[in-house]
Amino acid sequence: MSSEHASKKLAAGVIRNDREMSDGRTIRYYDTHGQTRNAPDLRPKEDQPGIGEIRLDSLVNEWVAMAPHRQTRIFLPPKELCPLCPTTGELLTEIPEATYDVVVFDNRSPSLRPPDGPWKLPQSLGPETPIVPAAGICEVVCYTPEHGNSFGDLSQSQVRTVLEAWRDRTAELSEQEFIEQIFPFENRGEEVGVTLTHPHGQIYAYSYLPSRVERMLAAAKLHKERTGRVLFDDLLAREIKDEVRIVAQNEHWIAFVPYAARYPFEIHVTPRKPVADLTELSLEVCDAFPSISLEVLKRLDGVFGIPMAYIAAWHQAPVRQGRDLLRLHWQITSVRRAPGKLKYLAGSESAMGAFIMDMRPEQSAQQLRDVVLGK
Questions:
Q1: Residue 271, strand partner residues
Q2: Within the chain, which residue ranges are assigned CATH 3.30.428.10?
Q3: In this structure, are residues 289 and 253 in contact, taking their beta carbons and an 8 Å threshold?
Q4: pLDDT at residue 125, as a whole number
């Protein structure tokens, strides 16, 4: 689909309109009220950064992206200079329109970017594995034009539009032959490294399987060989049976603190009917997501009565393998363990990857359930 004046009808009454930005990047408007999107990007044309590189850490066979150009990206600008707000007056932002519902655009300082030509990940791993261009795609997802709000402040209809944007991007990015994994996520709060306070998330489409995905896939394969069943399905069945770690649920979704949670507050939200990725969700299940997602985030903020810093990560099956083994789920983790106290990844966690929890998952689940939600 051409980026200039392209239009596409999606589910839930969402219309996607594509426009070209001044530097050649694409911005995608996801609207629900038939808006016309013709505002030009009036900023001067700038050269986009070149592609970085990925190197193999052969001690653990994990890929590491090198993106030194990201050192110059904008850091915590004041509201009047926010690049994710709509364009108003002399403030020319990433979004040329005066308002918007949801937008997705190519990242201005991407860690990964499409390769210029044919590209292949090296298959021979070791100290002699060559450096290769950091192939991939990085996009920014703006949830709302309201600068001071967060995902949890969205209406259910706004969340539904964001979900449709995630689904659409997952489907389209999966068509790229160099993409192996698609990862929509959100960072909220300076405690987890947020550099722009406007409510937004990102999508990373990797050209390789990140290490956590590889470990999850290996565990799922082993379980399937041993039992003939899907590991995540068995884990969900245990949560439903135990009940004590369930935080919220509706007809189509269930939210729980996992049996071996690694963070003070960790919540997994998953559809009751298992699917590989966002594109496989039925419309009925999609329509049931906004209510539980907002409830979970309100419970998280309500534990201590303060906005909780968190990372909200969509785990999906890889694009080309393991689609019958890995299940879609939304993982929300917070490093806040008490007002004024954070869980820092100290020696055991950072150096050895061996997590130590100061409280049992059943305790944090109870704290989340005890939150009294307003009407």
A1: 253
A2: 6-208, 213-370
A3: yes
A4: 92
pTM of the model: 0.95
Q: 105 with 37: CB under 8 angstroms?
A: no
Instruction: Give the residues of the chain that fall short of pLDDT 70.
Output: 1-5, 69-76, 375
Q: Which residues, 6 or more positions from 83, have their beta carbon under 8 angstroms from its beta carbon?
A: 74, 77, 93, 94, 196
Give me the residues paired with residue 162 across strands.
none
At the second CATH level, the architecture of 6-208 is 2-Layer Sandwich (3.30)
φ, ψ dihedrals at 278, nearest 5° = -60, -30
How far is it, in rounded angstroms, from Cα 372 to Cα 178? 47
Amino acid 66 reads M
**Residue 12 Rama label (left phi>0; alpha psi -120 to 50; beta):** left
Place of tokens 């944090």: 364
Taking 3-state DSSP, the helix, strand and coil percentages for the chain, each rounded to the nearest 5, stand at 25, 25, 50
Q: Report the alpha-carbon distance of residue 335 to residue 280 in Å, rounded.
A: 31
DSSP string, 318-373: -SSS-TTT---EEEEEE-EEETTEE----HHHHHH-----SS-HHHHHHHHHHPPP
Which one from 198, 200, 252, 315 is the annotated catalytic residue?
A: 200
- The amino acid present at 142, given as its one-letter code, is C
Measure the CA–CA gap between 60 and 350, rounded to whole angstroms.
Answer: 14
Q: Give the CATH number of domain 213-370.
A: 3.30.428.10
| pLDDT reported for residue 3 | 47
The whole-number pLDDT of residue 2 equals: 46
* Nearest of 129, 159, 142, 161 to residue 54 by alpha carbon: 129
Q: How far apart are the first and last CA of the chain?
A: 43
Residue 200 falls in the annotated catalytic set:
yes
Beta bridge partners of 249: 254
- The residue assigned the tokens 């896939």 is 217
Q: For position 304, what pLDDT does the model report? A: 94
Place of tokens 């709060």: 189
The per-residue pLDDT for range 264-308, each reduced to its tens digit, is 999 999 999 999 999 999 999 999 999 999 999 999 999 999 999
Handedness of CA 66, 210, 174, 266 (dihedral sign): negative
Q: Do 161 and 305 touch, CB atoms closer than 8 A?
A: no
Whether 283 and 164 have beta carbons less than 8 Å apart is answered as: no
